[in-house]
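User: hey, got a sec? need Protein kinase domain-containing protein folded
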Amino acid sequence: MASVDQELRSINIQSVQILEKEQDPRDFNWQTGGYLGFEVYEGSKAWYGRLPLEEHRQDWPNDGLQKNLSRFDELIKLLHPIPKNEIYPEFPPRGLTRYRPQQEGDNATRFFKAPKLGYHRAGRDNLAMRLLNEAEIHEKILHHPHRNLGSYLGCVEEEGRLVRLVFGKYSKSLEDCLQFGLPWEFTLQQCEDFMDGIEEAVAHMHSLGLAHNDISPSNIMFDDMGRAVLIDFDACAPLESCLTKGGLVGGWKGPVVGQGLQFEVSSAECDKLAIKEIRKDLAEALEKRDGM
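Assistant: Yep! Here you go:
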């Protein structure tokens, strides 16, 4: 049975800007204002905290997963340890697939998804319930699969708790392509085709009574065959149920440009509008590339 490597360390950083009520984003200092949000793991142990951006950006110049972990022990002294019961739900007696590697080395080609600690609230188990909800969503899709939906492989149990979701690992996202320039092999027809695949996958989800609610370029990956695959279901919920995450159309464009419609309930319309925005972004990126 799979288990979490207790010596495996990770530091993930995200810039966090909190505007005052009714403050115009154009008046905010995006370079020095705000905080650095730290999500830190050592095996299944977790720490979280926000440190002033202006004071700590020099030590941690880049957002995202950090390659240099030499200051790990120093960093966790500044953060808050999170009790396991607040981020990991009890593993239910039935209904979830336990991940078991088929052969040695399998784990190297897997992505082990942990809770996103930035959503943790002290004394509450909202993250634990979100992880369990996502596992249950993936189990439903596992029994009603679609080729353009992510490759869920099961869950990792530790000491009676659900601690990780396991997926096949993808190396490239649509966000990567848009950020670093669309590959020349991407034609307009190919872009339309892979977005058609995503649209079909979303329609399949809707037929199951679910909406994704957080479709963005970072949640569209490409497999080894070049097929687009929709991932990240932690905002997915039954249609018309209240949302605790996601629901912002175009939020990936940033606080100034991304002033899209905000949905408060799980909605097929939210997914459709997000796909429409991504198609628009792709068309603009193709026009820019081909006009060079």
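Quick note: The radius of gyration is 20 Å. Let me know if you need anything else on Protein kinase domain-containing protein.
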